[in-house]
Each structure stands twice: as structure tokens, then as C-alpha cells.
Amino acid sequence: xxxxxxxKGRGAQKNPPNKFLQYLYEARDDFLEYxxxxxxxxxxxxxQYLPVFPKTIVNKVTSPDVGMMYSMNPYQGCExxxxxxxxxxxxxxxxxxxxxxxERRILVKEKAAELLEEKLLSKSWKAETIVMSGNTDCxxxxxxxxxxxxxxxxxxxxxxxxxxxxxxxxFILKDLDIIKELNKHRLIGVNIxxxxxxxxxxxxxxxxxxxxxxxxxxxxVLSENDxxxxxxxxxxxxxINSHEILKLAKTVSDHGALSFGITVVRxxxxxxxxxxxxxxxxxxxxxxxxxxxxxxxxxxxxNDSRFGIxxxxxxxxxxxxxxxANLARKTYFKDKSFPELNKNLFETYKSGQTKLF
Length: 357
What we know:
About 35% of the residues lie in helices and about 10% in strands. It is an alpha/beta fold and about 350 residues long. The N and C termini lie far apart (about 75 Å). Keywords: Iron, Iron-sulfur, Metal-binding.
């Protein structure tokens, strides 16, 4: 039978088995052939939005490799389809695959804003920056329909609580009004992810994300409004975007970013086989070279799970990446710094003492 057609507009090209499930689903060749002859689709490639109702929304981050203490995610799964995304593995916790399911079955936390307010009003809660999109992008396409991120920002503003945002979508500018209000009190910092200056590379790595031009404009607009922006130049994938570090850093600095972060790609869990399948289909001429370069950064494997090492890698290639990043900071960011957010207003607004004035 003819090999299955490449799924345009998606990152992952397969649905690997969920390691937590007892039974596996497999589309047999005879069924696929029957569908082809009948002119039917074996499965739909359309995105599904599925409501879920968790009891909590704010997560404590225990990893020392992540620069945040708390995160929250209005959506699980992400239609952006970034092939390298570390969050893919979390979709297995919900009973789905880390592959195409991650991009096509988006779990929507409709009560996120209510859960956030409940958390902030709890007696034990003290102000610490909560980062939206610690796992999946809070401004992915689903936000245009549900506007849950907007509702959460309104809660943060109501209680004057600090919030961080990580996104690679220009749709964040639709909320510029409330972001500006938060910034008047030094309550918000934005992280914009830019992985490459090549649109061709962007399209294959991150098929449903905003274009490079729109992301750079987003940095510029936010910066012109004095909103602090950090650029996430991550992940660096040897053999794909590792040669762009200096140009990336200069470009985001020129557009107003105050700092940048960088990590070396690691393909943990199911992501290893998803990425390997993808690169052999998408970049067959350099697939093995790229895979070997990644392995060189992680002791001969596609992933290293050791804290303190897994995001920076080891070996000559990983060291070259760090050296280039250090040079970029000294050259393009020597007089810049990302400010600390304001934690001092929350207790007053939480207790309602402002009503006395």
C-alpha cells in the first residue's frame, strides 16, 4: 500500500503508543486500504477542543532547570505543533498520544480564571510570579475562541499579582490594553520564543505558529510600550539552527528585547521517536547527521534527564553553543537587564484594604 501522505500543517507525523495505557490502537493496512478505495478518511485531522475540569490550575515547579516557581496552563496540548516540544509527553497523562493527538486534541480548562482567583485568595498564598505557558502556549489558536488567557490576566490585574507569559504567537497583542495596565504596576514580563530567522525552518519546526516577521513585530510593539521582553532562543538544535545564535540575539536585541534565554534540545520520552520519524521524512538528507549531533550533546543519547545538565548538554558542541550565547550577551545585551516584578501590592488588594481609600 502507498505510504501515508505527509500531514501538512502538523508537526508530528505519527501517534506513538501511550505508555500508560494497557491497550493500544493500531490502524491496520487492510482498513487503511479500504478507506482509500472508498474515498474516506481513516481519521480526522481536524482540531478538537475538549473541555476539562481540573480542581486546581496553579502548579508548583520543582525542577531547578526552569526559571520559575509557579506556572499555569489554560490549555493542554498545543495546536502550534512544534516538533521538539517537551510538553508533548504530558498529553499521555490525559490518556492521549504525545504525537498527533497533542496537536489535534486540545483540552480546554474553561474554569481557569475562577480556579486562579480561588488560589490567590487562599490564606496560605503569598505573591510569587505565576508564569502562563509553563507547559503549553496560552496564546495558541484556541485562545482566539475561548479567551481564557484574557480572563486570567483580568484576575491578575484585579489583585495586582505578578504574572509572566511565554508565547510564540502575535495574538498576545490583542491583550495589549490589559498588559499595559499590568505593566503600570510592574506586574508583567513577557517571553517571546523565536527559534530561527528562517521562515522555511520556522514552518517545518513550528508549523502553526506566528511568522518570524509577526513575532519580531510583537517584541518591538511590547518594548515600545516599555513592557519587559525576554526572547527565548530555544531550543537550539545542532545542525538546524545552531548557526543562528549570534544573528538571533542581535535581531531580538535590535527589536527591544532586554535579555534572552537558550537551551539545547533534548528529546525525552516519546519525543525521541516522534522527532526521529519527523526529521527522516522532512529533512532526509541531513536527518542522521542532526540526530548524531544531538546525541553528542547528551552522552550518546537523544535525551539526558539529569537536573542541571539536561537543558545545557555536555561535550564540545554543547560548549560551543554556550560560548556563542555568552558572546551574544556581551555583545548585544551588555547594558540591558530584565527587571524583577512587583510583589508588594498583592496583599493589600487581596485583603480588600483598598476599599478604605
